[in-house]
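Lecture notes, unit on protein representations.

Consider one protein chain, 201 amino acids long.
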Amino acid sequence: MNTHATTDKGHIRSQEILRTAQAILASEGYAGLSMRGVATQLGISLSTVQHYYTNKEALVEALLIYVMDNYQAAVAQVMNAMSDKSQLERFKTIIDLILIEIRRPETFGVLAEIYALSNRLPFAARLVEAVYARERKEIFKLIYGLEPKISKAEYKLRAAMIVVQIHGLVSQLAQDNDPSLSRRQLEQAAKQSFLMLATKA
């Protein structure tokens, strides 16, 4: 048996499971997501899904990592393409990319659902904290040094503030309970705040 081919096939299957779970979680929420439902949509057995992800929590955890990995791959691609641009130009472009990403139903729906779950399920709270830590690190790398007068410690704090605001924006858009504020207005205000935190001493 070709072990490499078997491994590749397994990777493809696990990706199919994650994409299907992502679509279900984004559209039907955590309550609507089940291992059996994923299996049914893919036309495979429940035991096949369980072979890759032992239970629903493991599936959701892998799904969130999958979403974050895809986002970070997109960021890395943009950064590589803009290697000749200034640090500020790269930061502005990445912020635009983040705002585009959280508009996508398959990303927005998953994040909003995980945030809601984090208030009552310990495993979801752990996932959210892991995402926050990962994002703080990435944002810090993007903004550190933009303003020489700002210390490293201060930039770490500002990176944390930007991450909190990004997730606050996701939560606000999920609630959508203030008709006086459009998505465009919220995004513009967020961009101005991010830029100020990154550059103003």
